[in-house]
Amino acid sequence: MKRVYIGVLTGLMMVMLAGCANGVSYEAGSYVGSAQGKNGPIKVEVTFSKNKIESVQVVSYKDDLDYATKAVEGMPESIIAKQRLDVDAVSGATLTSRGIVGAVAQCVTDAGADPEKLGFTSVAKKTDSQEVLI
Q1: Which one of 17, 30, 42, 77 is at 20 to 30 Å from 93 when CA atoms are compared?
Q2: CA distance 76 to 45
């Protein structure tokens, strides 16, 4: 029985440590950010706890509904699940996806953290080996 308790406690500790693995802490609260999408700005609202991105909501966007809807629905879930900004773009909605990530990165900065620690790379810092869309 003692081994079961030790196993359970070890498992719980691993889960807790995995949540803190990125070493990023935030000023808890909700922040609004925006970045350029395909046809205009994309505005998001992001809620942070001290060590976690709790929610990402796309507030407004001007991109094509047929393409943007996939990114608007999928990107926030990916960011929250991975607790990272280097998530895959939604096929067919790359510029909308990048706009959402850029807006979330602004919120991360406003919450007192470094978006680069979450895998964010701005277009200005992309290298020749990375895709840059003009």
Answers
A1: 30
A2: 10
76 three-state secondary structure: helix
CB atoms within 10 A of CB 47: 17
Residue 40 near residue 63, CB atoms below 8 Å: yes
The structure tokens listed for 25 are 């802490």
> What's the distance, CA 47 to chain centroid?
11
Length of the chain: 134
Q: What is the pLDDT along the chain (134 residues), one digit of tens a residue?
A: 656 445 544 544 454 444 444 689 999 999 999 999 999 999 999 999 999 999 999 999 999 888 899 999 999 999 999 999 999 999 999 999 999 999 999 999 999 999 999 999 876 554 444 555 55
| C-beta of residue 31 within 8 angstroms of C-beta of residue 46 | yes
